[in-house]
């Protein structure tokens, strides 16, 4: 069996997908030097779009999603299963696969949210004003 | 660059700052940064250090996917060549003169010494994510209560089994958390053998197995790849890995007095 490839994106240029963007958000919004700690006078307050992507909080939604994923599991590998049940599982799989793309994770969802914000100007009012004014 | 500003006049552009780097570098003329259209990136030099900046219009909010990617792409391309202290996204100063007078000049020695520490090193991010079906099977097989609950809900409507589903999901989430902790610990020990510094990041996804940033000499990148490849092999089919970098040392630069959380 082929082991999963170790993917290395030397050029972040290729990170156009949702998860790639999520990786970027994860890194540059939360880490790096905070310039406010150095500079106080000449900082300019500029509106930064609100991006709240990083927090993974286990909620009832998470639990229900895990449970549904467990429900979808094809257990034929671990126990005998009647044919009707298997057919039912396949049907379930077909239906739920669709929703999986939407709810797969916080990060992918966050990527979508970002695209929405860009795509729909009215969403920009959600932007949070961070004022940093000279003294 | 002589952006002229007056305290009384509302200015329309500022100097967006990406990072601090040694003075003896050049920025290629096609380097672009945040903004739409992307602004040209230049250097503001002072003594032995310089700031990587671009003009940014103040009339629109920052933070579009294009802005975010531009910020990181520029810093990471830089980090592959020279040491750089990355500045968190969104820092804007009034103009280039202010960048010198208030940032480069007062903190010159501190920045220079940090850049010397980074010489020849870069950050990489290792991320491993559990394959859902495989990890679920593992949990259901190992946890008797979870195994029973999965039988209880099997094929029954969600509304009728809501309590059981919540309990099952909670058990799964907890079990994955325990596995994450153990697997992260195992891997970090190996990573520490080749890397100078390792920081465990918060999980970015509920199925994260490992999420860590490492600082390593760029020349030893192949050793890092080797460690990740060994784990990818050992946990084949169970955990999918990605390794990103070289990138700027976002996780390893800290403000004075800041404590790693």
Notes on the protein architecture:
- Chain A has one domain (17-126).
- Chain A has four helices and one strand.
- In chain A, helix 1 (18-28) packs across helix 4 (106-119).
- Chain A is mostly helical.
- The model of chain A is unreliable at 1-19 and 78-135 (pLDDT under 50).
- Helices cover 44% and strands 2% of the residues of chain A.
- Chain A starts with 6 loop residues before the first strand and ends in a 16-residue tail after the last helix.
- Chain A has helices at 18-28, 60-72, 83-103, 106-119, and one strand at 7-9.
- Chain B has 261 residues and is α+β, with helices and mostly antiparallel strands.
- Chain B has two domains: 13-119, no CATH class; 122-252, no CATH class.
- Chain B is built from seven helices and nine strands; from the N terminus they run E-E-E-H-E-E-H-H-E-H-H-H-E-E-H-E.
- In chain B, the strands form two sheets. In chain B, strands 1, 2, 3, 4 and 5 form a five-stranded antiparallel β-sheet that branches.
- In chain B, helix 5 packs across helix 6 (162-194) and helix 6 packs antiparallel against helix 7.
- The longest helix of chain B has 33 residues, at 162-194.
- The mean pLDDT of chain B is 92.
- The interface between A and B is large, with 76 and 99 residues.
- Strand 1 of chain A pairs parallel with strand 9 of chain B.
SSE inventory with pairings:
The complex is a heterodimer of chains A (135) and B (261).
Chain A (H helix, E strand, L loop, with lengths): L6 E3 L8 H11 L31 H13 L10 H21 L2 H14 L16
Chain B lengths: L12 E10 L18 E6 L2 E9 L7 H15 L5 E2 L5 E2 L2 H9 L3 H11 L2 E10 L1 H11 L1 H10 L8 H33 L2 E4 L7 E10 L3 H14 L4 E9 L14
Antiparallel strand pairs in B: 1-3, 1-4, 1-5, 2-3, 6-8, 6-9, 7-8
Helix pairs in contact in B: 4-5, 5-6, 6-7
Features:
heterodimer; A: 135 residues; mainly alpha; 4 helices; disordered N terminus; disordered C terminus; B: 261 residues; alpha+beta; 2 domains; five-stranded antiparallel sheet; four-stranded antiparallel sheet; 7 helices; 9 strands; 39% helix; elongated
């Amino acid at each position: 069996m082929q082991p999963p490839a170790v993917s290395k994106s030397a050029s972040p240029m290729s990170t156009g997908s949702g998860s790639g963007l999520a990786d970027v958000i994860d890194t540059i919004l939360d880490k790096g030097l905070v310039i406010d700690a150095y500079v106080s006078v000449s900082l300019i307050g500029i509106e930064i779009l609100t991006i709240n992507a990083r927090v993974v909080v286990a909620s009832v939604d998470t639990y229900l999603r895990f449970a549904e994923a467990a429900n979808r599991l094809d257990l034929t590998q671990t126990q005998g299963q009647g044919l009707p049940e298997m057919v039912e599982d396949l049907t379930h799989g077909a239906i739920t696969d669709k929703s999986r793309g939407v709810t797969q994770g916080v990060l992918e969802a966050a990527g979508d949210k970002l695209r929405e914000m860009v795509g729909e100007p009215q969403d920009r009012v959600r932007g949070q004003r961070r004022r940093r004014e000279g003294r | 660059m002589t952006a002229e500003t007056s305290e009384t006049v509302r200015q329309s552009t500022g100097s967006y700052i990406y990072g601090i780097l040694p003075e003896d570098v050049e920025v290629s003329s096609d380097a672009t940064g945040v903004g739409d259209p992307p602004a040209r990136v230049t250097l503001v030099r002072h003594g032995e250090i310089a700031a990587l900046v671009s003009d940014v219009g103040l009339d629109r909010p920052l933070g579009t996917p294009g802005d975010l990617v531009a910020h990181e792409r520029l810093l990471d391309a830089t980090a592959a060549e020279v040491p750089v202290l990355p500045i968190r996204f969104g820092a804007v100063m009034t103009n280039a003169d202010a960048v010198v007078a208030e940032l480069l000049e007062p903190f010159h020695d501190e920045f220079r010494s940090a850049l010397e520490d980074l010489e020849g090193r870069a950050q990489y991010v290792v991320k491993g994510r559990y394959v859902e079906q495989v990890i679920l099977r593992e949990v259901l097989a190992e946890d008797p209560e979870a195994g029973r609950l999965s039988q209880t809900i099997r094929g029954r409507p969600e509304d009728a089994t809501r309590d059981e589903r919540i309990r099952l999901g909670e058990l799964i989430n907890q079990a994955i958390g325990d596995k994450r902790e153990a697997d992260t610990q195992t891997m970090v020990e190996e990573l520490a053998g080749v890397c100078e510094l390792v920081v465990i990041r918060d999980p970015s996804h509920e199925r994260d197995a490992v999420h860590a940033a490492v600082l390593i000499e760029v020349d030893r990148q192949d050793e890092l790849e080797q460690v990740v490849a060994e784990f990818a092999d050992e946990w084949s089919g169970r955990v999918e890995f990605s390794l990103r970098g070289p990138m700027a040392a976002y996780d390893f630069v800290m403000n004075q007095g800041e404590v790693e959380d």
